[in-house]
Amino acid sequence: MADVLIVVAKVVFVVLIVLQVMGLGVFFERKVSALIQDRIGANRAAIFGVAAFGLINTLVADPIKFLLKEDVVPAGTDRLLHFLAPVLAVVPLMLTFAVIPFGDVLEVGGRVITLQAAQLDVGILFVLAFVSLGVYGVVLGGWASNNRWSLLGGIRGSAQMISYEVAMGLALIGVVLTYGTLDLQAIARAQGALLGGWLPAWGVLYQPVAFLIFMVAGIAESKRIPFDLPESESELVSGYFTEYSGPKHLMFMMADFVEVVLVSAVVTTLFFGAWQVPWLFRDGFHFPWGATAPLPSLAVALLQVTAFVLKLVFFTWLQIVIRWTLPRFRYDQLMRLGWQGLLPVALANVVVSALLIVTVGARVA
Amino acid sequence: VSPLLFLVLALLTVVAAVTVIAHPNPVHSACALVVTLFLLAVFFVGLDAQLIAFLQIIVYAGAVVVLFLFVIMLLNLQREERATAGLAPVALAGLGGGALVLLLLRGLHGARTPPGADVGAGFGETAAVARKLFTTYLLPFELTSILLLVAIVGAVAIAQKRQP
Predict the structure, then answer these.
(1) Rg (CA), chain B
(2) What sign has the CA pseudo-torsion B4, B5, B11, B14?
(3) What is this structure's pTM?
(4) Which of B 44-73 lie inside 8 A of A, CB atoms?
(5) Most A CBs within 10 Å, among B31, B44, B66, to test the A interface
(6) For residue A137, which of A262, A259, A263, A260 has the smallest C-alpha distance?
(7) How is residue A330 annotated by DSSP?
(8) How far is CA A279 from the centre of its chain?
(9) Which is it for strands A280-281 and A199-200: parallel, antiparallel or unpaired?
(10) How far is it, in rounded angstroms, from Cα B66 to Cα B155?
(11) B111 pLDDT more than 80
């Protein structure tokens, strides 16, 4: 019984982390874009005169508005698929967080709890599998709407997502070579080692090229500027979700932001030490200059979870700044970058990583 | 996997598989194919073959069927017109199918489930599968990759010829 409760608690905790960081992403989207464009941004809605820098507007007023709007289903749509598409866009992406570790272990009353919803031997493949299922929301949403703009958006989306998944997968092969495992918790733990006694052995030091490729491919997967061709407001109205309104439209928006958080989570886990805090071990801090600060298990776990969430927030913010900085690619540029730019570099990265591992042993073990 | 769960999953898989061939709308057929492939992956998980299960989702559900859908949408295929066959082909197909079912039932009659074989620890995990693949089955593995390479080169060659 206690075991079941622990699993439920972990699942609820993970979902809460994802939804909170996603909400913060939406807030950043409104306010960071305003800052970049020298505007004030969302600040109208307020509760008893408290607008909280637009937090009320973006996180309370906007969702209520979305949920209360009429759900218009145009004539000639495929009703079943039109209904299923937004669900298929969000659910697989939410599931991927099951294998993302958000902390090391927590010892409570002689029980050692791993801070990860599901520890899988094939964690990375789990993430890739469900990310690749996310494409169905886009394709089917575009097709079921019975609208040419939607269909064009859906077709663009499917081609784009498949193209960039190739580079993404190949970038991850370099990472897997470095760590020698597909288990995300094992990868997170391996990054606790110290190079030369002081430098945390985070993945980005071993796989900088894979990090860049994964980040670019990840932004392309989330279909946001500069890769927002499936949506491109200026030509396709709103692309694959043109014919969606109210709650279903909200779900497509949510899928976008969940994907942003997912890219942040995977980048953090693979390249930036996951939940690792430099020099923090299970029994407390061991500083490289010899000082130690012992901490109870609960404090260590709290610090790790906090570090993980802060890293998530940072990369979410980074992706939003990128989105508001760059213009949109042309379609041929998009395909060229994917197939002739990222793919060969990712392949070369695999070969070079393998050579370095065999010759100088450049791996985390 | 418990027998009840297996039965439910098997029933769902068969229903989805029949939908693939029976549904008049090609997009719905493709969606049913995704469901079928996903449920097969669930069976693989039940058989302790996690690696195969997720590869199945990535390759088939996540990529191959997306390409099917892509082509269906690009060609804008509509609901398929039912071709009406004469009585003779239908009767012949019915006879052949019935004979196959009888044969299967005959074969299954009195068959016993063998006791579960004892597999070592780590069975079906990535390391174990990889070790087998790169030692015992190295030759077939490499031959398959050459076959795939030939297919890729062939596809590129055919596509090139069409260009002016």
Answers:
(1) 21
(2) negative
(3) 0.86
(4) 50-51, 54-55, 57-58, 61-63, 66-67, 69-70, 73
(5) B66
(6) A259
(7) P
(8) 26
(9) unpaired
(10) 18
(11) no
Residue type, B64: V
Pick from A233, A228, A211, A224: which is nearest to A260 by CA? Answer: A224
Which of these, B50, B39, B43, B1, lies nearest to A126 by C-alpha position?
A: B50
> Which CA distances in Å does A282 have to A111, A191, A237, A273?
15, 14, 53, 15
Task: Name the DSSP class of A230.
Answer: T
* B126–A contact, CB cutoff 8 A: yes
On the 0-12 / 13-18 / 19+ scale of CB atoms within 10 A, A259 is buried
Owner of token pair 């017109």: B81
Q: Is the dihedral of CA A151, A153, A154, A155 positive or negative?
A: positive
Chain B positions touching A140 (Cβ under 8 A) are 27, 31, 69
How far lies B142's CA from each of A80, A344, B146, B147, in Å? 44, 22, 6, 9
Please say whether the beta carbons of A100 and A311 come within 8 A. no
B13 confidence band (pLDDT: 50, 70, 90): very high
Residues of B with CB below 8 A from A151's CB? 73
Q: Which residues of B138-155 are buried (b: 16+ CB within 10 A; e: fewer)?
A: eeeeeeeeeeeeeeeeee
pLDDT tens figures, A138-150: 888 888 888 888 8
| Cβ atoms of A164 and A220 closer than 8 Å | yes
Q: Decide: helix, strand or coil at residue A99.
A: helix
**Contact across the interface for A155 and B70, Cβ inside 8 Å:** yes
Q: Are strands A284-286 and A280-281 parallel, antiparallel or unpaired?
A: antiparallel
Cβ-nearest to B126 among A129, A131, A182: A182
How many residues make up chain A in this entry? Answer: 365
Q: For tokens 């029980």, what's the residue?
A: A111
pLDDT per residue as tens digits for the range A89-145: 899 999 999 889 988 878 777 777 888 888 888 888 899 889 888 888 888 888 888
A355 is written with which tokens? Answer: 């050579």
Q: Minimum mean pLDDT among A300-309, B8-17, B120-129: which range?
A: B120-129
Q: How confident is the model at residue B103 (pLDDT cuts 50, 70, 90)?
A: very high
- Alpha carbon distance B87, B57 (integer Å): 40
B38-54 residue pLDDT tens = 999 988 888 888 888 88
Q: In chain B, what is the straight-line distance between the N-terminal and C-terminal CA atoms, in Å?
A: 56
CB-CB neighbours of A31 under 10 Å: 21
